[in-house]
Structure prediction request, 206 residues.
Amino acid sequence: MEHSGFFNGDQEYGQEEFNRYFDNIYESGLSVKDDNTMTLGVTSEASTIKVDRGFAIVKGFYLYNDSVKSIAVSPDSNYDRIDRVVIRLNISNSKVTIEIKNGIAGSKPQPPTLQRDNLIYELSLAQIYVPRSGSITITDERYRKELCGAIRPKNLMEFNSMLKGFTDQFDRWFNSQQAKGWRNVFIQPERPVESVRGSIWIQTLT
Prediction:
């Protein structure tokens, strides 16, 4: 079956249509600020995690956080633990939220695995090392594309590959014309004496 849109009139569009549209255009990830840093940065203050403002797309759905979000972190009484701050898409309750995903406390703690299935899809903003005593430590994971990454066109790699192919094709043609003596380019201080009509002379200073 073919689908198309978006048109005025009697057509009605909902979650599935908009999700299908954006999920086919953009990779899941975070927005990037003018200084080329990602939004939704994670910091800590005592036993509280703070997630900065920002925007994210997760499988075609979006999250817009317009104020700093604070989340309390409680250490385990016996062991250290590694948590993650995640952006969680939950299809069943129609929400995209910022959450703490707790790891399992132990002598050799490991970060919790991200859930990515038909109902839940998670992006990791940061790992949070929560010792049984002392200060928590944050490891930024926003820049790891397999865990999060930036919002980017899905076909960017193919587009860059296409441009490289065009450039390589032009370079091969240009070099072949150069070999025939067509519009040779001379970069030298003296006027070239053996050049075909139409050659280019770029005079350098001696």
Q: What stands out?
A: The helical segments are 15-23, 156-179.
